[in-house]
Structures are given as C-alpha cells and as structure tokens.
Amino acid sequence: MHSNTPAPLKQGDCIRIVAPGSPFDKMKFTRGISVLETMGFHPVFSNDIFCENGYLAGPDTLRADMINHAFSDDQVNAIWCARGGYGAIRALGYLNYELISSYPKIFIGCSDMTSILNMLNLKCHMVSFHGPMIESLGAADDVTIQSLLNALCSNRRLIVSPQQSVVIHSGKSSGRVAGGNLTTLCHLIGTPFQPDFSGSILLIEDTGEAPYRIDRMLSQMKLAGCFKGLAGMVLGSFENCGEINQIYHIVRDIFSDMEIPILGGFDIGHGQPNVTIPLGVEAFLDADAGEMAYSYPHLDFNP
Q1: Is the dihedral of CA 167, 169, 172, 173 positive or negative?
Q2: What letters, b where the CB count within 10 A reaches 16 and e where it falls short, cover 32-50?
Q3: pLDDT digit string (tens) for 52-108?
C-alpha cells in the first residue's frame, strides 16, 4: 500500500466536516450529520463552517485553512465536504500540499470539490473520493449509502457497474481514474492546477448545463490537449442537461477519432443515487461488459 493511501474507515472514526465552497442549508446539513452518526461515525465541525461571505462560505484563506487543519489533526480519520456550489477553485492556492501529503486521509466531495479531489491526486499523490456531500446525505437512498460503505470501509475489490449501461465506444483499457464535474475541470485549463489526464480513465458529470455548453466545454478541453493520451472515459449523471441521448451523441462525436472505451450510464454525480468512487486509483474499464473494476483490494495510489 502506498504511504499516501488513507486507511479504510471503521466504526467510531472521527470525520471532520469542512466547507470549501458555498454556504449550505442548515436543516439539510443536520440531517446529513444524523446519517453519518447512523452509519457509526463520529462527525465533528467548528463554527467556522457556518461563516457566510456572499456566495462563499467565508474568506478564501478560512476555507482553505479548514482543510489544512483537518489534515494535520491526528484525531481526524476522514474529511467530508458540506456542500459544493462555488469557491473551491479560489482556495487551491492557499492549500498546504506539503502538509497535506504528510497526513493522508479520506477526503470526500463532488461537484465544485472536483478541483480539490484532483489536486490531492496530482500534488499529494493521495487517493480522494468522489461522493455525496453532507447537505445531500440526509436524502440519500440505500444505493448511495451502501456505495459509500463499499468504497470507504470495505477491503473487498471495488467494482462499479451502471444499472443501465450505455456503450458509446466499445473496448477495454486500464488507467488511473480521474475527473469529476465537467464545468469545474474546464475552468482549470490554463491554470497551474490543470490536471494531466494522460493514461487516465476520465469521469465526467454535470448538472444544469445545456447540451451545447457540454459540447463547448468538451471541445475546448480537446483543443487544449486535455484528452491527449486518455485511456478511457466513463459518463456519470447529467442532471437537468437536456436529453441524455443527446449528451451521448455529443461525446461520441467529439471522441470519434480516439480509439478508447467510453461507457455511459453511471449513477455518479448530482443525481440519485450518487455512487462513491475513488479517484487516483488504477482501474480496468470494460465497456462491453458494462463495468469498471478497481485493480486493488486496498486503494493503492498509482501516480
């Protein structure tokens, strides 16, 4: 196991809640905390997470310091994001990646947290987890909860399969799983935090984006060279993004010149259920069999 691989969670472990993005609904937050307690964990948080600064949950340095302090706290076993919204990208320059690398911990989030999830992979060589946030946890269904337990607590080999898979391009490949929210990934282009997806199986998902905007973002990323050397692709949920088959058609068209397996239909992202998967870990994608199987029973980081 890599030294920067977080240990699996167990009953009674301490989970610190952070708010690197926008302010959150306090009633939904309370329900999410109750779900964590029902799952057997011990959630903790400071009053700083309730700070509001317009559409941000406090100043950039405060939101970044929440994460820095949570990683350096020996009592904390995992770090869970309260909500996405917007703001994580503004905190990237204030994160102490050297400190974080010294204290590997499970970090869970999605949507706007995509930038932090990928930076933990690329700058800290640490596994991160694309999964539901506290605000949505209170309304999570059984599939969502079980997938969390499978990904965070189990030593069994993780295999993720869509309930209704859609083969956009057949084939098989292996690579480090990366990605997350398409809009967030697109906004990292040209910054010092632009991820390198070469050799990766790229996950994309989004919400509230019209098909032409999905097309525009994928086209920009392709022109910027983001997909050079890509090993494969999996598509999560596209909530309120129009007809899903149109999204699939756009992806099929833009990636028509690349001989990589592309599988759609994964319940990963803003929909329900929202299946938890590790990022930064090697997996094997078999589009025709309709599954993505992680290579290791323990989540061993592969840079």
Answers
A1: negative
A2: bbebbeebebebebeeebe
A3: 999 999 999 999 999 999 999 999 999 999 999 999 999 999 999 999 999 999 999
Calculated CA dihedral for residues 78, 8, 199, 100, nearest 10 degrees: 30
Q: Which two tokens stand for residue 215?
A: 């097309």
Q: Which of 132, 157, 127, 130 is nearest to 143 (CA)?
A: 132
- Hey, what are 24's tokens? 């959150």
Q: How far apart are CA 248 and CA 255, in angstroms?
A: 11
Q: Which CATH class is domain 14-153?
A: alpha beta
Show the tokens assigned to 61. 């340095």
| Long-range contacts, 7-11 (Cβ 8 Å, 24+) | 7/77, 8/152, 8/153, 8/154, 8/155, 8/298, 9/41, 9/77, 9/78, 9/106, 9/152, 9/153, 10/153, 11/40, 11/41
Q: Tokens 């059984």 label which residue?
A: 142
pTM over 0.85: yes
pLDDT tens profile 238-278: 999 999 999 999 999 999 999 999 999 999 999 899 999 99
**Span 159-294 CATH architecture:** 3-Layer(bba) Sandwich (3.50)
Catalytic residues: 111, 205, 270
**Domain residue limits, the chain:** 14-153, 159-294
Residue 141 has pLDDT above 60, yes or no: yes
Which among 181, 167, 171, 152 is positioned nearest to 281, based on CA atoms? 152
